[in-house]
Design goal:
Elements (H helix, E strand, L loop, with lengths): L6 H22 L4 E2 L5 E2 L12 E3 L5 E5 L4 H9 L4 E9 L11 E10 L3 H22 L25 E4 H9 L10 H12 L9 E6 L15 E8 L2 E8 L4 H18 L8 H9 L4 E7 H8 L17
Parallel strand pairs: 1-5, 7-8
Antiparallel strand pairs: 2-4, 3-4, 5-6, 6-11, 8-9, 9-10, 10-11
Helix pairs in contact: 1-3, 2-7, 4-5, 6-7
Length: about 325
C-alpha cells in the first residue's frame, strides 16, 4: 500500500536531526560527557511558579514525579566527580501551553565543574552560532535573516559573540523606566512589568544576556558579592532562550531555600512537593564550584527556522496527539 508522506513532518524531523546532531558535536568537541538521568524522580523541583505531573503505580500508589528539569541529578553527578556534562532530554511541566510552551518539551542542560557563570555564558555565545551554521549549511529551511548558505557566507552577525549584557536593574530602567528597588518586594508586580514592558523588547536585533537577578529569585544560584543572584538569562526577539546559574554549593543554604519554597507553595494553595534529600546529602558531601545552563531546544530551533511557534518544530505537539 502506498504511503502518503507529510512533507511538513518530514522537514521537522530533518531539522531536528541536524540541530540535535550539531548540539552533540559542539559539546563532544569540548570534552563534555553526554549523560542520562531519570524522568521519574523523587522531587521534580520546588519552584513556586511550576507545577509537576505526579506518577502513580498500577494500584494508585505514588511513585514520584516527572522531572521538570534534570538539574538535581546532574548536579549529583558533579558531586560524584564528573567534570563537564551535558544532556538532551524531555522535561515535563503541567499547565503550560502556548506559542513558547508545551507540557512536554526538549531541554539542553550542561554543567562545568570549577567554572564561573561567565564560562557558561561563553559556551552559550559559541553554541548558538555553531548550531545556526549547521542548519544554514543544509540550505533547505527558511532560516533567520542574514544566513545565506548558498552564497557560502556565514551571515551570523545576530549571534556573533560577545552578546550584549544588561543587568536586571538596567533592563527595567531602560525598557520600563522603573527602578528595581520599587519592585523587589513585590514579585508579582515585578513579573508583570517584566512580561509586559521589558521582555518583549529584549534581543530585538541580537541576543542579550540579562544578569544580576534579585536574591529572592536566586533559586539554585549562589549570591554574588554585590548581593544579587549569580543567575543569567538570554533573550532573543523577546523570547527567553535559557536560564543559567553560578551554582549554589552550600547545602544548608539550599535546604533553607527549599523550605522557603515549600512554605510559599503551602501559602498559595499549591501542592507542597518534597525536598530531594539525596541531592542535599550530596551537596553536604561536597560539590565543586560549578556553573550550568538550561536551554530550551524547541524555542531556539523555532527562532533559527523562522517558525512562529515551538509547535511548528515539534513532530508531536500536544495538539496533534
Amino acid at each position: 500500500m502506498a504511503v502518503s508522506a507529510d512533507p511538513a513532518v518530514l522537514q521537522v524531523l530533518k531539522l531536528r536531526a541536524v540541530f540535535l546532531g550539531a548540539i552533540r558535536r559542539f559539546f563532544e568537541e569540548r570534552a563534555f560527557i553526554e549523560v542520562e538521568t531519570p524522568s521519574i524522580v523523587p522531587s521534580p523541583g520546588l519552584d513556586v511558579h511550576l507545577e509537576a505531573f505526579s506518577v502513580q503505580g498500577p494500584k494508585g500508589e505514588p511513585v514520584g514525579w516527572l522531572a521538570t528539569s534534570p538539574e538535581y541529578q546532574m548536579k549529583r553527578l558533579l558531586c560524584a566527580g564528573a567534570p563537564r556534562i551535558f544532556q538532551l532530554c524531555r522535561s515535563y511541566r503541567a499547565e503550560e501551553h502556548g506559542r513558547h510552551h508545551e507540557r512536554e518539551f526538549t531541554v539542553l542542560e550542561w554543567y562545568r565543574a570549577n567554572a564561573t557563570s561567565d564560562d557558561v555564558i561563553r559556551d552559550t555565545e559559541e553554541l548558538v552560532p555553531f548550531v545556526a551554521t549547521a542548519l544554514a549549511e543544509k540550505g533547505d529551511s527558511p532560516l533567520f535573516p542574514g544566513v545565506n548558505s548558498s552564497s557560502g557566507k556565514r551571515g551570523l552577525s545576530p549571534f556573533s559573540a560577545p552578546w550584549e549584557r544588561l543587568t536586571v536593574e538596567e533592563a527595567l530602567r531602560f525598557h520600563a523606566n522603573v527602578e528595581l528597588e520599587s519592585l523587589v518586594e513585590d514579585e508579582e508586580r515585578f513579573f508583570r512589568v517584566w512580561a509586559v514592558e521589558v521582555q518583549p523588547r529584549l534581543g530585538a536585533e541580537r541576543p542579550v544576556i540579562v544578569t544580576d537577578w534579585p536574591a529572592s529569585m536566586a533559586s539554585l544560584a549562589r549570591l554574588k558579592p554585590n548581593g544579587m543572584a549569580d543567575r543569567f538569562e538570554a533573550f532573543y526577539l523577546g523570547v527567553e532562550l535559557c536560564n543559567g546559574f553560578g551554582e549554589l554549593t552550600d547545602a544548608e543554604e539550599q535546604r533553607r531555600r527549599f523550605q522557603r519554597d515549600q512554605a510559599e507553595r503551602r501559602a498559595t494553595g499549591a501542592q507542597v512537593l518534597p525536598i530531594d534529600e539525596r541531592f542535599v546529602a550530596d551537596l553536604e558531601r561536597g560539590m565543586p564550584e560549578s556553573s550550568g545552563n538550561a536551554l530550551g531546544v524547541d524555542r531556539l530551533l523555532m527562532l533559527l527556522a523562522g517558525a512562529d511557534s515551538i509547535q511548528a518544530v515539534m513532530p508531536f505537539p500536544a495538539e496533534r496527539l
